[in-house]
Amino acid sequence: MSPTYKRWYDHDPLLLEVIELLKNYQTELHAQAEIFLKKIEENVSKETVEKFYAMVKPVNANNRWYDKDPVISKTVELLRVVPPEVQKAAAEHFLRTLKELGIEPEKLEEEAEQDEEKENNSK
């Protein structure tokens, strides 16, 4: 019996990691999400991406964490609707690109914890 997943990205650990990174570090990863979208646009055209996004974006798309930033929203929605093999390849590429840029997910998490600790100590 195969496990049941609550969220569309739970089936792949790499995809789950990318989504969690985007969720927790939206500001820090905004530029990388823009690069990701530009690479897609290079392959299919910006107009195609915009039309596709308009078709797949839910009508009431203002309640989710990623709806606040159009770049992050578009990135997550495109990842959501592509086939699993494309999701996996995109997740691998995203994480590889972060490492090439010197951005390591572990360091982001450490920095966030340190920032939170500083904030708590200043209260």
Task: Give the helix proportion (percent range).
Answer: over 70%
User: What is the overall silhouette?
Assistant: globular
Which spans of ≥5 residues are poorly predicted at pLDDT below 50?
A: none
Largest sheet: none
Taking all Cα atoms into account, the compactness measure Rg is: 16 Å
Number of strands: 0
How do the helices and strands line up, and which of them pair or pack?
Blueprint: H1 13-24, H2 26-44, H3 46-56, H4 70-81, H5 84-100, H6 105-121
Structural write-up:
- The protein has 123 residues and is mainly α.
- It has helices at residues 13-24, 26-44, 46-56, 70-81, 84-100, 105-121.
- The model has no long low-confidence stretch (mean pLDDT 83).
Short characterization:
The chain is mainly alpha-helical. It has six helices and no strands.
Which descriptors would you attach to this protein?
single chain; mainly alpha; 123 residues; 6 helices; globular
